[in-house]
Amino acid sequence: MASLGILLVVPVDAYLEAELDRRFNLFRLWESPPSRRREFLQANAPWIRAVVGSPNGCADAELIDQLPNLEIVANFGVGIDKVDLRRCRERGIRVVYTPDVVTDDTADLGIGLAIAALRRICDADRYTRAGSWNDGRIGLAVAKRAQGFGCPICYCSRSEKPNTNYKYYPSVLDLASNCHVLVAACPLTDETHHIINREVIEALGPKGVLVNIGRGSLVDEKELVSALLEGRLGAAGLDVFEHEPHVPEQLFGLENVVLVPHIGTNTVETTKAMSDLILDNLAAYMLNKPLLTPLF
Question: Among 169, 178, 179, 201, which is disulfide-ready with 174 (CB 3.0 to 4.6 Å)?
């Protein structure tokens, strides 16, 4: 399969990169200085038939247009907002990604961020490390809560989901008006860009908690920061940010915010499963077999 030339756009998991290098003819785009990347692509375009990227960078229209022999794009992640899907469809380029394998770990982090923000766990951790903690009999209360949260669940999506008893709201504004913790976990599209705006944040209110485990641009970050600073939003747990890796400095001094560096899928097991899924998709394409997880 070494005849398949693959352009790796950004650094990814070390295992995936090593396997791509071993199995295919690998070109690493980031090793070329930005000022010389057009020259690099022109020199190597005849051999490049596949692009592998991630939510940090994949296949935009400019890159696709510089690769006349491109046949397939593989995205290391479930978010495909860094792939120009319209241009891929126009060119007949196949697109694969890594759904499902990221679901459980990302959901776990969402719950963790919500609890950490609600109970100010990071603040409590700093308090304890400072030696300021006095003994308290809370073990039984923690154990009782661990038996089950017992929270009512409601949601918003493009359509009501079958086979669920969860309360459905047709709009995010309705959802925010009727919940205490709002978790953003949808894909980033033109439709969902800044779906969490000032109006939604106001509806969530000064006792509400916003958790974002989807994409940074689902949330109007300027409005989020001002709402937290002014006390119009109670707390936030954030795994993703609008201009990653930049995090608004105003958030650093707030005790009602939990910040983690986009680690929702960052476990050994999930990263390995995602890598293997990319490799299996590329192998299937080379052998003219059905793709495992095609977007189209």
Answer: 169
Burial of 146 (0-12, 13-18, 19+ CB in 10 A): exposed
Cis amide prior to 162 (ω within 30 degrees): no
The answer to whether residues 63 and 140 belong to one domain is no
Task: Report yes or no: 82 and 59 within 8 Å, Cβ to Cβ.
Answer: yes
Output the CA–CA distances (angstroms, integers) from residue 248 to 184, 226, 252, in the order listed.
19, 11, 8
215 among known catalytic residues:
yes
Choosing from 49, 87, 242, 262, the catalytic residue is 262
Task: Identify whether residues 236 and 276 lie together within a single domain.
Answer: no
Q: pLDDT by residue (tens digit) across 173-212?
A: 999 999 998 989 888 899 999 999 999 999 999 999 999 9
Alpha-carbon 52 to chain mean position: 17
Domain total in the chain: 2
Q: Does 145 share its domain with 252?
A: yes
Residue 164's alpha-carbon distances to 95, 99, 155, 161, 224, in angstroms, are 31, 22, 11, 7, 31
Q: Report the C-alpha gap between 265 and 251 in whole angstroms.
A: 23
Residue numbers of the domain that contains 148: 103-259
Out of 49, 87, 215, 221, the active site residue is 215
Q: Which of 17, 19, 199, 244 is catalytic?
A: 244
Are 196 and 72 contained in the same domain? no
Bridge partners, 28 (sequence order): 8
Question: What pTM does this model have?
Answer: 0.75
Same-domain check for residues 148 and 65: no
Non-local (6+) Cβ contacts of 141 within 8 A are none
- Same domain, residue pair 29 and 112: no
127 and 108 both lie in a single domain: yes
